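Bug report

Summary: structure tokens for Cytochrome b5 heme-binding domain-containing protein differ between web form and batch submission.
Environment: batch mode, default settings.
Steps: 1) Submit the sequence below via batch. 2) Compare with the web form result.

Sequence submitted:
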Amino acid sequence: MGQICQRRAAPEVAAPKVTLVPKKHDPKRYGSDYSRFDHIEDSDEEVDTKVEEEVPYPEEPEPQNPSDEQRKELKEKFMKISRKMVRDTSGRFRDEEKPKAARLPKDHQRPVGTISLQELAKYSCSNDRMLLSCYGDIFDVSSRPDLYGWGPKSWQSGKDITWSAVTGNEKPDQCNRFYDVFKLDPDRISRYLTLICNRLVALQDEFGKPVGRLDRFLNERHLPAAPQSEVEECKQQ
């Protein structure tokens, strides 16, 4: 009996340790439908993807149509970059020979306020006082009749030259063309603002502060986008 009892008790003393072994995936057993959780965002990656889908780019114009204050701030940032570029390169090139002092009109540098395109046209190359507009800033260029009076840039007087500065196509038919550069893709916005601000810095350095503002740019957000064909041409240049 003692031997029998000892045999029966042996399993309890020498019982093998239980080891948990993960079971293989059984598709039948785990065939639950989780589609009801599709609307739950469980990763940052999915969040980003969803945002891009909700705000198509560049089809939706709203993200590329910042407020007037945002436009002003962005323009100032590009102006600072352009000014720094001018300072860094000014010592590398020999200064151009300054022209002889011109006879200035009595109203030279007199502020004109906000004027229309028709009013700007009165200050063409045939007048003693000559004005031009670039990105809505009006400059008095009367001190350089050798350029803007009878010279090679006479066609710019009395006009807005913004689009010619952007395209690099310095011709009269590129003047008085008004488009909203913010309705383009980010790369072109950056490129076009750089070109515009480079020209503005050059005009400020030679002719001082603007004397007025062109009314077409008071509501720049409502201007149309540039023609796609011309945008592509600018890219190739």
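Above is the batch result. After comparison, the two runs are identical; trailing whitespace caused the diff. The beta strands are 113-115, 131-134, 137-140, 212-214. The chain has a mean pLDDT of 79.
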